[in-house]
Write a structure and sequence with these properties.
seven-stranded mixed beta sheet, 14 strands, binds zinc ion, RibonucZ/Hydroxyglut_hydro
Length: 444
């Protein structure tokens, strides 16, 4: 048997969808599953590409994993490329009732399996347990629920709550997930409040903090009201560093000069301005001596404080932030696809990410169909050059979920000089998925 835990990457077009598999220590030979994000569900991307509504349910059932319930569904943040597929999964379970009553075939057995314990469908006595035990979700409504802010109008948990409530009208379960019940109804934050259960032996939360979430909501609200927002306060370090040096202009990289020497603009370009992305639940999953860093669409900067600005031991796997966007991995975006490593304080930040958060395997939820394909070419180029310059870096492979463009392959291999090319060619670039529909997974 392959070593546990496993991270299964489910191809989710331009979204994220992952499954963590690990032993259930309370029942011999049983396994537990955490779903991390649901992908974009039935979002249509183009005339030639469509993900059907029930594809995630079908995908989970098509594996040999015998999944019949999910201990946790973790929706990292409220963007559709992470949420809609999770909603669709729950909708599919509910709609399966219809196919059952109209004589649905093989779906019936899968459905009963997922609803194991539901007496009306399955003559097993005992509590009727909803097939998902716990849901984590960091939208901004959970800040209001915890009285951290006065008002919020996020549709995320609102939609999810309505969906779950609709489900109970079909099936009166005895146990039912309450969103963020693990977190006393509040946000999933770092550090974990004393009032919530201890996950430290499985999941160490690495971001965000409660204060960061409140700041992000304030920023989002201001922007919705038309007030220009600057970068979040913890992203201003580089800007303030520059402003503290009158002669800093001489140190500016040429790409910043292209945009003018507006330091704020430059700093904003460096960081991801999306409040929802930055609210992502980030966590280190550890089990059986293996460690996997899950990053959502969050930001590398948040991770530094989670690890007290020190470099943790290499991980087995790191899920690269935000589909490999250069914004969230501290590589500057350029119009010509050339990786720019900003100097001075910014440079420290850039060099730090892949040097600080080392792993044997990096995975990128990538989408070559998007008009601006993820990962950003700058990220691939930078990874290639950094790994080539660090012969002792533990990296063995970089995985992509949806194929890699020829441009990306080239960028990775040609990022190094001829003297270091051997290092890069020794790092496997692996494509986890070819094709356009959910049907693939990858084990680690
Ligand atoms: Zn995303």
């Amino acid at each position: 048997m392959a070593a546990m835990p496993k991270l299964h990457m489910i191809q989710a077009t331009y979204g994220d969808c992952m499954l963590l598999e690990f032993p259930d220590t309370s029942v011999a030979s049983k396994k537990k599953f955490w779903l991390v994000d649901g992908g974009p569900g039935n979002q249509t991307r183009s005339a030639t590409f469509k993900v059907t509504n029930n594809s995630l349910f079908a995908t989970l059932n098509s594996t040999s994993l015998n999944i019949d319930r999910l201990e946790r569904v973790i929706i990292t943040h409220n963007d559709r490329d992470h949420t809609y597929g999770a909603y669709a999964l729950i909708s599919t379970l509910k709609d399966a009732k219809i196919s059952v009553t109209t004589g649905g075939g093989s779906e019936f057995l899968k459905f009963v399996s997922w609803l194991n314990g539901y007496t009306a469908m399955n003559p097993i006595t005992g509590p009727k347990k909803f097939p998902i035990d716990h849901i984590w979700f960091n939208d901004f409504n959970v800040l209001k629920a915890a009285s951290f802010i006065d008002e919020a109008a996020d549709k995320g948990t609102g939609w999810l709550f309505a969906l779950l409530r609709d489900f109970t009208n079909y099936y009166p379960f005895d146990t039912f997930p309450v969103i963020n019940d693990d977190w006393a109804g509040g946000p999933v934050v770092m550090p974990k409040p004393d009032t919530v259960p201890d996950f430290s032996n499985i999941a160490k939360i690495t971001g965000p903090t409660k204060d960061q979430l409140v700041t992000l909501w304030t920023s989002k609200k201001r922007r919705m009201l038309g007030v220009k927002s600057g970068p979040p306060p913890w992203k201003q370090t580089a800007l303030e560093y520059k402003k503290s040096k009158e002669d800093a202009t001489a140190e500016m990289p040429s790409s910043i000069e292209k945009w003018g020497t507006d330091l704020e603009t430059a700093t904003n370009r460096l960081g991801d301005p999306s409040e929802t992305n930055l609210s992502s639940i980030m966590f280190e999953f550890s089990n059986s001596g293996k460690r996997i860093l899950m990053t959502g669409d969050g930001d590398g900067d948040t991770l530094y404080s989670a690890y007290n600005e020190t470099s943790p031991d290499p991980f087995n796997i790191i899920k690269i932030c935000h589909h490999g966007s250069c914004h969230n991995n501290n590589i500057m975006h350029t119009t010509d696809g050339v990786a720019i490593v900003p100097r001075e304080a910014i440079q420290n930040s850039v060099q730090r990410f892949f040097s600080t958060f080392r792993a044997e395997k990096y995975v990128i939820s990538s989408d070559t169909l998007n008009r601006t394909p993820n990962p950003d070419i700058e990220t691939v180029t930078y990874m290639g050059s950094l790994f080539a310059s660090q012969p002792n870096h533990p990296v063995k492979a970089v995985y992509f979920t949806n194929g890699m463009t020829y441009k990306s392959w080239r960028a990775f291999y040609y990022a190094s000089t001829s003297s270091t090319a051997t290092q890069n060619t020794s790092i496997a670039l692996k494509v986890l998925k070819h094709g356009y529909v959910h049907q693939s997974k990858a084990d680690f």
